[in-house]
Here is the input.
Amino acid sequence: MSIEELIEREEGFEKAQRSVKRTTSPILATLYPREEGSIFENRFLMVSFFPGRFEIFKGILPPDLEVLDLGIKVHFVSVEDEDSGEIVNKMVLCPEETNEKFRRVYGAVGEFKGKCPLCEYAQEWWDRYNERRTQKGIKGLPTEEYRIAVQQDAMLQRYRSQARKFSAISRYMFAVFDLSKYEGKKPLDAEEYCEYQILFVPESVFSGIAGFVRSFVRSGIRFWDINSLHVVSIIRDTREGFPKVKYSVAVEPRPYVPSKELREYLEAKEIPDPSPLINSWTEVFVRKAIEREEDRLVAESREEGQRVSVEVQKRDEEVKQEVAQVQPGRLPPRGVTPRVESDVSVSKADVEPSQVRVESTRVSAEEVVKSVEERVTEESLGSPIRRRLRFTKDK
Ligand SMILES: [Zn+2]
Here is the structure.
């Protein structure tokens, strides 16, 4: 860090330092920037915590289990918010996958009950994906060839993205104090004071932090101990737009020395219980989410179908109009250009299929034939034209 930056940071600290206090309802910590096209360094202090004492994990994790992070498995679903009516993205705990992880990693003492309907729904999409892969005969291709094959198949891509969207993914919980907020570099969310919060991070950020844990521990430093706090920075970069969000992690080598007020607050370690913010799934909640997704898919494919049929209709309409104008005794519009004698009917060359573009779609070709047949009688045109049009129809 340059001296200028340091001074700027110190000044910002002086001007905007906020006060600390435990507020009643928990608010999850957030990573900035929220919007696209920006980058922000989120400075946190991290402390160890006892997840088995949080309401949601009581009876499932041992109460004396002390961790720096807790890995859980979650689904993200879009549902209508009961209060605002807006569509919000909710994180729902996956019981089956979390049980599996808790057993393996933390020696769980209990487990979440129930089969996970979201996992089942995701599996339906994976099944469709696998079936199509088999149909296409691309299973087992070398990586690069496989990637290209998937890229060329819109349906395969759609199945896979739906399957991924609903599959359970890892999230890691940390108990953090947001220094960026405390230093006035970052706006407060819904909280009034700066306080301990629970931060959920994706796998990439977790492995970055885990790397620092290993290297600091080798030097005998536990940067999450109140007596040896170091700033953990999570830099979020949205400059390439969503969903290409990049993260990088850094831990400052020098310890952070808190003010007296902050030190007292941190030492008390009153970490708010985030349980109300981690949604346990309920049958109704999940069914609503799945129904909403199905509605969305139906609407999307209807829209797609409508768009195509409008295009076909429009093209048919143009073709019909052009053909309708090629009538005995009437001058054709520009662009159709048959050679019309004032007192003779249209000759076979005048309704050359290519001129009226009847081959645009099979449907429209048929309609054109029908419309021509209706309007132009055999007597007025003679037989050659009919044969010609029939030929177009059969093509
Ligand atoms: Zn699940």
Observations:
- DSSP finds 13 helices and eight strands in the chain.
- Residues 217 and 223 are 9 Å apart (CA to CA).
- The chain has two domains: 15-111+168-280, 302-394.
- The radius of gyration is 33 Å.
